[in-house]
Structures are given as C-alpha cells and as structure tokens.
Design brief:
Blueprint: H1 7-20, H2 22-47, H3 62-96, H4 111-146, H5 150-175, H6 178-185, H7 190-196, H8 201-233, H9 235-239, H10 255-291
Helix pairs in contact: 1-10, 2-3, 2-10, 3-4, 3-10, 4-5, 4-6, 5-8, 6-7, 6-10, 8-10
Length: 304
Amino acid sequence: MTESFSISEAMATPLRVIRRHPAAVFVWGFVVAVFTVLAALMIFGTLANIPLGDGAEPPPEFLGQIMAMQGISMLMNIAQLVLTVAVWAATMRATLRIGRPDKWFFLRVGMDELRVGVVGIALFIGAYLAVLIMVVIGALVTAIVWHVSQAVALVLGIVLFLALVAFIAVATARLSLIAPATMILGRLAFVEGWNLGKKRALPLLGLLVCTWLVYLVVYFIIAFVVIIILFATGAFAHMAAIGDAVTFGDLFPSAPVMWSVALLTVGPGAFLYGSVMTLLSAPFVSAARQLLDGAPEDAVPALV
C-alpha cells in the first residue's frame, strides 16, 4: 500500500476514461436521461388536465390517477436507485479497466452492484443521522446559551455551523474511498476504505474540492447551453404567454417544441451527463487504486 496518491493523476483519470470509452460514457448518460424523460412524461400526463384558476375543480377521475401515479412513482424511485447504482458501478469498473473493450459498456447487475448499493445506502443513512444529531445538539446548546446572552449565542451558532460544515467536508473526504475500495476488493470494504483515508484527509479534501469545482464549471456550461436551446426552440416565448392557460398542460410548450428541445438536448446532454458521473467517480477510484497498490490478485476481480 502506497503512502499517498497523486491528485493530478486522479483528476486526469476522468478524461482518460472519457477519451478511451466515449460510447460507454454516452450510454451511461443516455439511460439515465431516458428514464428521467419517461418519469417526467408520466407526471405530466397525470397533471396535464388539472384546471387552473379560482374555483376550478379537477375532473372526477383525477384522484384515482394521482393514487395510481404515487404507486408507480414508488416503483420508479426503486428503479432509479437501481439504475443509479448500476451506472455508478459502471463508471468505477471502466476506471479500473481503462482501454479494455466491453460490449455491455461496463454495465452489470451483479454482486458488485449489490455491494456498491449497500455501501451507498449505508453511507447516506449514516451521514443523515450523524448530521441530524449534531444539528439537534447544536440547536439545544445555542438555545441554552441564548437565555444567558443572545450575542454569545449568535456567535456560538455561527461557530457551530462552520464546525459542522468543516466536519461534513472532512468526513465526506474520509468516506469517499469506501465505495471504490469495495469495488476493487470485491467485498464490503467499510473498514478498508475508512483506513485508506487515515492521515490523508487533507489530500482527499483537496481532491474533493477540485472535483466539485470542475463539476460547477461543467454545470454552468450545461445550463447556458440549455438556455440557448430553449430560446432557439421558442420554449421561452411560450412561457412568456401563459397568462391564458386553462389547464396545467397549457403551461408547457406544444409537443413539437418539446420534442425539438428533447432531440437537441438528449444527444449532447447524455454525453455530458455521463461525463459528469465519470468526473464524480473516477478520481476517487484512481486514488483508492493508488493507495491499494499491492493488494492480492485474488482480491481484485475488477482488474481481471
């Protein structure tokens, strides 16, 4: 196991994955985009006939449609979770196999995905509970001090808030290697992943900051492109003339306009979204791989 890892190499890894596996990157984003569009169409189809205006009442069948949509929505949430985990695992698998062809674009539904899903859910629940407990304790302490001195309580509240932000940042950095270690070692690697970050919190935090800075730049570029497409297709012009809308469906552009937006955004949008998912995953897989250099061959099925 190496003593440290190269942040520059880790940050360069997403570009290597994107350059060597562009089709896979597109497919990752495309499957997520298609699922999102289908979910949006289902919701839109259910809500389109809701009348607007004072005293307007929904049609009699609306309640049944809403109940059916809620049931389908729960199933779609589960499907979205499975899809997200599958794509997340695919980005890590591709990072560990850069340059190796894969006819399924590194997408699988197997034990790797199950383990990664367990790690993701456990980290989410654990982080949520930890933050909730700290917020409650901080609020109680601040409330107690408030009765003594409001000025001191205000300062204490700011200090506790900043301390919470710092704690979340450092904890996120330390926890960021658990999922990659799980993928590399082929077993639940909570302990191994946590230990990999020991005495490396600052480099991992630096990697986290670099990753999110690049993400923000890409996000604003995507938002700018989407705004241009909405202007070019006339979607904004329709939004400016919705004062006479009778139903909820009237608030949205016509079908030709919506399909124009979809066709113009799905292609490049899918590739960009796949690239973003790669960006948020590959650097930490690279860091974990560097730190786990020397792991037994039979413990790294993702590399064979």
